[in-house]
């Protein structure tokens, strides 16, 4: 494979979000020549794929990006969307990464010498190593049944939602009760819209417990330092749905039962459409109870930690007791009679790595790796959920992941350079 017309760098980083920029920062410190390829603009998802009332669900002090840990005056608060974007722009300015924006990677292959060939919309490159930092949330998931729903129903994915006022008048069905679904349902509810929520198996967590943010308690307990290999679920934890909670208005619980008291209609898992009615599993009670059990279990573990450490608190242990009980399971909803004019699909994303020609993926299209290091020499991932710890896909753990990977890249580069020098050396006379 000819490399004559291709620009060569030691490392190509694919993706210009916080993970890619963090990787660039440590590579600069290590002196590795690299470029960052971003198909949109840097930090695109944070700037353009969040709703207007979005806030962090983790406290600001957990923002620990290289070169710029949280620099505001409210470490225990929760940055709103525009505040977060401003913080990330300051971070990007500090990093000053060699980014090439608007460049789509079309294909990545390796040759017999282990050299990477990267074909892009802006020319071709070669590299000794490649770091994929594009995350794992690429293709919005919308089920095929959406194609059969009436054209009069406005359908969007959670990544497209901005605010209630942009939606047609009428009720809104939110499908999915993970972090995005629960928070979007709350946003619509607070705006006075009639909300129908199709729940899933997402767990919930208290915002504050016994006088302190639950995140802070869990951090004290070492939860966020547990590696994926130490976790009881092992690598299966990567498939877990995040707990729903919010940082809105200073932070609070999200209690779907309370929403039901206030008029939100709750259903179980949505499974189909028969041409007239939406069909749901009769599992709403199970979903709510399971979420509440997780909520109480986490608080119980905090109670045990407080007792073990001999910590004195002004607030004693408590147990969440449901304020609303399900009268009966409803498995069908007539779409025309309901007044629903909009459906927001909040059921996640799927990965899309078809451009990467490497035997490092499992049957679901997720990369197989050990702390971001794959079995293919010179190929790495960063920014994935539970890459190493809970914080790997967030702002609290990406710095440690970048530093770890950088050590591997430096070592590999030294070995590769030494091998090439040896191969190019003249034979002894």
TrEMBL record:
Keywords: Oxidoreductase. Signal peptide: none annotated. It comes from the Bacteria. The keyword Oxidoreductase applies. It holds the Pfam family Pyr_redox_3. SUPFAM superfamilies: FAD/NAD(P)-binding domain (SSF51905). This is MSMEG_0569 family flavin-dependent oxidoreductase. The lineage of its organism: Bacteria, Pseudomonadati, Pseudomonadota, Gammaproteobacteria, Oceanospirillales.
């Amino acid at each position: 494979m000819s490399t004559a017309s291709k620009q060569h760098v030691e490392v190509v980083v694919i993706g210009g979000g916080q993970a890619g920029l963090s990787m660039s920062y440590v590579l600069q410190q290590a002196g590795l020549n690299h470029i960052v390829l971003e198909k949109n603009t840097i930090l695109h998802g944070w700037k353009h794929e969040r709703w207007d009332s979005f806030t962090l669900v983790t406290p600001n002090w957990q923002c620990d990006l290289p070169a710029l840990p949280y620099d505001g005056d409210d470490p225990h608060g929760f940055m709103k969307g525009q505040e977060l974007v401003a913080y990330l722009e300051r971070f990007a300015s500090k990093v000053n990464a060699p980014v090439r924006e608007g460049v789509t990677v079309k294909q990545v292959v390796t040759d017999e010498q282990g050299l990477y060939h990267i074909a892009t919309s802006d020319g071709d490159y070669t590299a000794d190593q490649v770091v994929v930092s594009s995350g794992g949330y690429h293709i919005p998931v919308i089920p095929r049944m959406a194609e059969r729903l009436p054209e009069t129903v406005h359908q969007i994915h959670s990544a497209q939602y901005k605010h209630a006022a942009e939606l047609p008048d009428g009720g809104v069905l939110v499908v999915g009760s993970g972090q995005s679904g629960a928070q979007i349902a709350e946003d619509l509810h607070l705006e006075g819209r009639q909300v129908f929520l199709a729940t899933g198996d997402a767990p919930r967590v208290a915002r504050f417990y016994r006088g302190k943010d639950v995140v802070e308690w869990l951090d004290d307990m070492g939860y966020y330092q547990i590696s994926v290999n130490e976790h009881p679920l092992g690598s299966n934890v990567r498939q877990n749905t995040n707990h729903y909670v919010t940082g809105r208005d200073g932070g609070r619980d999200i209690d779907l039962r309370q929403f039901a008291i206030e008029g939100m209609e709750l259903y179980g898992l949505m499974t189909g459409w028969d041409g007239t009615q939406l069909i749901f599993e009769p599992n709403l009670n199970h979903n709510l109870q399971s979420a509440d059990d997780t909520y109480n279990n986490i608080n119980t573990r905090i109670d045990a930690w407080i007792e073990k450490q001999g910590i004195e608190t002004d607030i004693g242990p408590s147990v969440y007791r449901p304020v609303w009980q399900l009268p009966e399971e409803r498995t069908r909803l007539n779409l025309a009679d309901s007044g629903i004019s909009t459906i927001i699909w909040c059921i996640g994303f799927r990965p899309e790595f078809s451009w990467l020609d490497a035997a490092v993926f499992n049957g679901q299209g997720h990369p197989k790796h050990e702390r971001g290091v794959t079995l293919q020499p010179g190929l790495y991932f960063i920014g994935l959920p539970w890459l190493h710890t809970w914080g790997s896909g967030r702002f609290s753990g990406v710095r440690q992941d970048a530093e770890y990977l950088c050590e591997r890249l430096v070592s590999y580069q030294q070995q590769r350079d030494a091998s090439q020098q040896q191969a190019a050396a003249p034979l002894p006379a």
